[in-house]
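I hope you will forgive my troubling you with a question about protein structure. The matter concerns a single protein, recorded as an amino acid sequence and a row of backbone structure tokens. Please examine both parts with care and let me know of anything in them that strikes you as inconsistent. Here, with my thanks, is the record as I have it:
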Amino acid sequence: MSFLDLRNFNNYKQFIRKRSSINNKKLSFKCMGKIKISGNSALGLWAATIGFFFGMASVSLFGPTAHKFGAVMNLDPTTIGILVAIPSLSGSLLRIPFGAWVDTTGGKKPFCILMILSIIGVAGLMWLVNSHYPDHMDGMFPLVLLFGLLAGCGVATFSVGISQASYWFSQKRQGYATGMYGGVGTLAPGLFALLLPIAIAGIGLGKAYIGWTIFLIIGTVLYFIIGRNAPFFQFRKAGLSVDESKAEALKLGQELYPTGSIMKSLRESAKIPGTWILTLLYFASFGGFLALTVWYPSFWREFYGIGDIEAGVLTACFSMFSALVRASTGTLADKIGGRRLCFIAMILLGVGAIGMGFSRTFGLSMCFTIIISFAMGINNTAVFKMVPYYIPKAVGGASGWIGGIGAFGGFAIPPVMGAIAAKMGKEGYAWGFEVFLILALICILILWFCMKPEQGTKIRSAGQ
């Protein structure tokens, strides 16, 4: 490669070893006199995090609306359940192809597409609420279902943003980057669960949807302005070959590189056992997190007789605490390793599940809820800390599988807990938590026997 100064190659290697991430000073590197690279690791992380925060917020208003629609359309409980779950369905399954798409474009394009689809969905719901609700909803169920499905596309931005952020950071700082991204982004559901009931009561559902649509448009425009792909993808967009782009990005400290096509990224990551181990771990913690945000309101109401508002506040606190833990423990994952942190998380999850099954006092149940929330937060951080280590050549594809199938736990777990409650009555609302004890034990065994500890070896890029 003629443009690589071989005389300074040793200096480049020393430079890279000293840096833990791409320099946070503004990058403005000109290659061959015409290619300009902009952005830095901090901007790349915070742009993706802000975008994901708005993406997670896209469905916050849909849950209460779905129940109101169900009431005026005379839907049975099963159909209402399907309606409520629709945004999460698209939000989980679309993570797989869109996460893999990052390995070809760098993330900004698929992120913007998902946000635009989400805005269309929310805007459609805004139109329905302001023009048809509540007296003219007959025959509108298919439209409500479609708009809910589109609104859920914002949730799928998770796997896009986390891959986009990962490419900006070295392996040593993946815990910090992915923990901060996931933690701050997942603050949205809990935060808005507290604020939206107040807004709806104050201005009404119709105006709330108008405001929410404007809010999402602002967030999407903000991400479009500040979002940055990692240097490799900027070089590729400028016309350099894959090898040339890697060489130039290497000068700027980038360590991770993709395999190429979407399908290749998915295939390569699917061949690696670590992808499926991490998927199971994420199924237990993030899928469990989503499941409990649905389950806890019913638990507090049915088991302790707490009112709807109070049960909602307790559930929002569970959600927000877990998100804050996820955001604040990334550095810990960098220090002690993701595998070790997963062990700690699964032990705590098992303890919390046992405690919830036996507890018959509100205070004790709150203590075990905090333990479960903490365990899920640190495990969510640890899982994506390990992705660039165990699947370095297909970070986007692996993130898609893990984020998509892992989030599907939010659908699979509640019916099991519901079946236990239906069979055992009131006591079943407490014993349903033993689902997480079983998941924790399975994860501990797989971690011990099937996953080798991380070592301080350097990540190798594709083709090396």
Summary: Confidence is low (pLDDT under 50) at residues 1-33, 456-464. Strands lie at 29-31, 35-37.
